[in-house]
Design goal:
mainly alpha, two-stranded antiparallel sheet, elongated
Length: 148
């Protein structure tokens, strides 16, 4: 997502959003957020006319991945950002409890994994059986004078 859209989502100004990012730069590695180059900005403007307000902006737009959006909700202080951050934490908790509670699925996956391992072992054994094995081959390469 782009910074202007996130500012609207979190009910804050784009300028304040960028200030918080600059104050917390270590929380936004490249796989969380990056700035668009001039060429990328031009491409974005040609593809998304709704972002025409960025055309005259002197600063480069910032683009956020899913993890960056979640991190952004933790560094912003707007009421909306706090609510979104709380919901993200609740979603993680629900996800973890679903994984823990679903032991049946874990067992089914374990059984399936064992079956797949047996099938692959069988296939690899069959392929090995088809390849010729040479036992009486003369070694290739140089020999030292003490070797026969």
């Amino acid at each position: 997502m782009i910074d202007t859209d996130l500012a609207a989502l979190y009910e804050t100004e784009t300028k304040k959003l960028k200030q918080q990012i600059n104050r917390n730069r270590d929380r936004f590695p490249e796989d969380f957020m990056f700035e668009l180059t001039k060429e990328e900005k031009q491409q974005l403007l040609s593809l998304a006319p709704r972002l025409s307000n960025l055309k005259h902006s002197s600063t480069a737009p910032m683009v956020f991945t899913e993890q960056g959006v979640a991190m952004l909700s933790s560094v912003l202080n707007s009421k909306r950002a706090v609510k979104i951050n709380i919901e993200i934490m609740r979603a993680f908790t629900r996800y973890r409890s679903i994984l823990i509670e679903n032991t049946v699925l874990k067992e089914d996956l374990k059984v399936l994994d064992e079956k797949l391992n047996k099938v692959f072992k069988y296939l690899l054994d069959r392929i090995d059986a088809l390849t010729p094995h040479y036992t009486d081959r003369k070694k290739i390469g140089y020999r030292r004078s003490d070797e026969k």
